[in-house]
Design a protein that fits this description.
heterodimer, A: mainly alpha, Arc Repressor Mutant, subunit A, elongated, B: alpha/beta, Rossmann fold, 6-stranded mixed sheet, 3-stranded antiparallel sheet, 22% strand
């Protein structure tokens, strides 16, 4: 607890730099990465991330300093170069884009590692810490880094705001964007540049290997929560920022823990959580809908069963039926039937009378009758309009009886001219 | 059979497009008069989509050029609208139907500017014209194929252009949408708009369009339907390997329009 308060007060300048740096990076990669994600360029982000390594090494070899601005320039140049090479290979050869990305990624990264190894072997004292670009070392962020982060982040966010609707159109329908005369070449270059810059800024904190996760994961998580692009971008920025803070906190309390990987872990957890619980798109929401439909189907089938037993037998629609009688007329797993009977009793569609006996209520009878009616109406429709043989329509009607809305029912009834019987000569109950 | 017209609104000169050293469109050269509803017809891979993409400058040209209103495209872009194939975009994009229609106003809004109230009103009116106003705020992935196509048309209407180039607007849609689109196209024609539509159902083509471009990599014919939609030219377009041809023979007979100008009887 003390830890947390101390951390949140940001009184320690080192903590301040790390937290601020990670938050800025999180926001930036969330905003920029949203477009990378929507344009389905996730792998390209990975290729750029790996391709900035040789740039960093070359910049160091030429300049002999670890000045962040200087290394950034080197990173941006090779990052951009990788994009051009990928474009060139996929346009001018038979190699497809995915293979081109794979090729460029590994070749650039390989050259980067080669340069890094040779720098480390050179005995240059200033080189120590250059290997942090591989996996990142957020803890080493200092004041001047944060300034660079801050300015670049502000510039890039501003660019996205300015070009927001153009980027939106470019991501959704580039051909149309071109056709209305938007300068799409320019827009693509701007978007690519801010992506490369974000990656170049980020590698110091999270490293080339993890940077593409930083770019894609916030957007992927945000997409689960909203169908509005603007909200999605804001959410991605928030997710990026939160994971930045939490990652920094973990490595603050456990000094042996690295910040960058923890940021990614937190991001992954957010994405995983979003995937599970997001409304509508989430796995849980989908499950609930399925479950609800399943229950509705079971309940309607049971009501229908009461109706059928009476219709085929004693004509006593309100007679009490026992569990065994129900089970003898339709196959049901006993546990499901019991559960459904209880649910129907609770909804006052059934009355429980005596020991394990149930009978339909007014509304229950009406509902059971309706399901039977829909089933038979649909069978009439299938045989009459789709010319399906009467002995092939049952299964389809079995499913459709739960789907048809009252409006559709009225329309169907009118279309079929209020038929009295179904194709099997059973009466359609009204 | 290429009927050229004076004062065309669309003029295509020796247009050739080559993909991977294979010609997709070969020396197309024709003119289209104002206010016509033009069907671009031909077998699969005949270069129909390529033709309108080439006119819109979306694919690199190997030779030739296209002029709209007698000017290069860049000078008259505001008056030209392009409707891409529905499948060309990912509909699981975070946008509503209205958002997509608003994209048709971006050019009018200009770079860096926010969308104005007026643009919003125009976009909404356009959604009404395609009978989609009830779905304005619906996420586009939740629309049916036909509804998505209507959203695309509404976006084109929002551009308030004079020439419309549409790539397969009738592909994979329901009958309601098809008739809604046809009504809309007729209305647009009566307002003097020129509309070119890539179409692949020959049976409905004769009914919908009044001018035809018959394409099979090269231009087979271009002109008014009475002169161009003939059995000979259709056979030439489809290279004789088409079962539909038998049906077309019937169709031509049913509609009793002359197949040749000398009225030679059909077999």
């Amino acid at each position: 607890m003390e830890n947390l308060i101390e951390f949140l007060s940001l009184s320690d300048p080192n903590v301040r730099y790390v937290v601020l740096g990670m938050v800025l990076l999180g926001i930036c990669s969330g905003v920029v990465g949203s477009f990378t994600f929507l344009r389905k360029r996730a792998l390209l982000g990975d290729a750029i991330a790996h391709s900035v390594l040789p740039g960093v090494c070359l910049a160091f070899m030429i300049g002999g300093t670890k000045n962040p601005l200087f290394l950034l320039v080197g990173a941006t140049i090779t990052g951009w170069l990788s994009l051009i090479v990928i474009d060139f290979i996929s346009n001018r050869s038979r190699i497809k884009p995915d293979a081109a990305i794979g090729l460029v990624l590994s070749v650039f990264f390989g050259v980067g590692i080669l340069l890094l190894t040779s720098i480390q072997g050179s005995g240059n004292a200033a080189q120590s810490g250059l290997d942090k670009f591989l996996f990142g070392k957020a803890a080493s962020l200092i004041g001047s880094d944060v300034w660079v982060f801050g300015i670049l982040c502000a510039v890039m966010t501003l660019v996205v705001i300015l070009f927001f609707k153009e980027f939106k159109l470019l991501s959704f329908d580039p051909d149309f964007a071109h056709s209305i005369g938007l300068p799409i070449r320019l827009l693509e270059i701007v978007l690519a540049t801010i992506t490369v810059l974000t990656v170049a800024v980020g590698i110091q904190a999270v490293g080339v290997v993890l940077m593409s996760a930083m770019l894609i994961t916030p957007a992927a998580a945000a997409r689960y929560w909203t169908d509005k692009l603007f909200k999605m971008v804001i959410l991605a920025a928030i997710f990026g920022a939160i994971s930045g803070i939490l990652g920094a906190y973990v490595s603050y309390t456990e000094t042996a823990m690295p910040t960058g990987p923890w940021v990614i872990v937190v991001l992954s957890l957010i994405a995983f959580f979003s995937m599970l619980v997001a409304p509508k798109r989430g796995v849980w929401a989908q499950y609930v809908i399925q479950k609800r439909n399943q229950n509705k189907i079971h309940q309607e089938n049971v009501l229908k069963l009461f109706y059928h037993i009476a219709e085929k037998g004693d004509q006593q629609f309100r007679a009490a039926r026992s569990l065994d009688e129900l089970l003898s007329r339709r196959e049901f797993p006993t546990s499901i039937l019991k559960r459904t009977l209880t649910a129907l009793t609770k909804k006052e569609l059934l009355d429980k009378v005596g020991n394990n006996q149930w009978k339909l209520t007014d509304e229950g009878e009406e509902r059971g009758k309706r399901v039977v009616r829909l089933h038979r109406l649909w069978e009439v429709y299938l045989t009459k309009y789709l010319r399906i043989a009467p002995d092939h329509v049952h299964d389809d009607a079995e499913a459709m009886e739960h789907v048809i809305t009252p409006e559709l029912e009225a329309e169907l009834d009118k279309l079929l001219d209020y038929p009295a019987t179904d194709p099997h000569d059973s009466k359609i109950p009204r | 059979m290429i009927v050229n017209v004076p004062n065309p609104v669309i003029e295509v000169h020796d247009l050739t497009v080559i993909y991977n050293r294979k010609p997709a469109l070969w020396d197309a050269d024709f003119t289209i008069p104002k206010g016509k509803l033009v069907g671009i017809v031909g077998p699969n891979g005949a270069g129909k989509s390529t033709l309108i993409k080439a006119i819109m400058g979306l694919v690199p040209l190997s030779s030739g050029h296209a002029e709209l209103f007698g000017k290069p495209l860049d000078e008259v872009r505001q008056k030209v609208s392009y409707v891409p194939q529905r499948e060309s975009v990912d509909w699981d994009f975070p946008a509503s139907a209205l958002d997509v229609v608003l994209m048709g106003r971006y050019r009018h809004t200009g770079l860096f500017r926010r969308i104005s109230k007026k643009d919003r009103n125009i976009a909404f009116e356009c959604l009404k014209k395609v009978r989609m106003e009830a779905f304005a705020n619906r996420q586009i992935a939740q629309l049916s194929g036909g509804q998505q196509q209507r959203v695309f048309l509404a976006r084109a209407l929002a551009q308030q252009a004079d020439i419309y180039l549409m790539d397969e607007p009738f592909a994979g849609i329901d009958a309601t949408t098809e008739s809604a689109i046809v009504d809309l196209l007729f209305e647009m024609r009566s307002e003097g708009k020129t509309i070119m539509v890539v179409h692949h159902d020959l049976e409905s083509a004769y009914e919908y369009f009044d001018w035809f471009v018959l394409l099979n990599t090269r231009l087979v014919a271009c002109g008014p339907k009475e002169e161009v939609f003939t059995q000979d030219l259709l056979v030439e377009t489809y290279g004789g390997k088409m079962n539909v041809l038998a049906k077309i023979g019937e169709l031509i007979r049913e509609n009793t329009f002359p197949v040749r100008e000398d009225n030679s009887p059909l077999r």
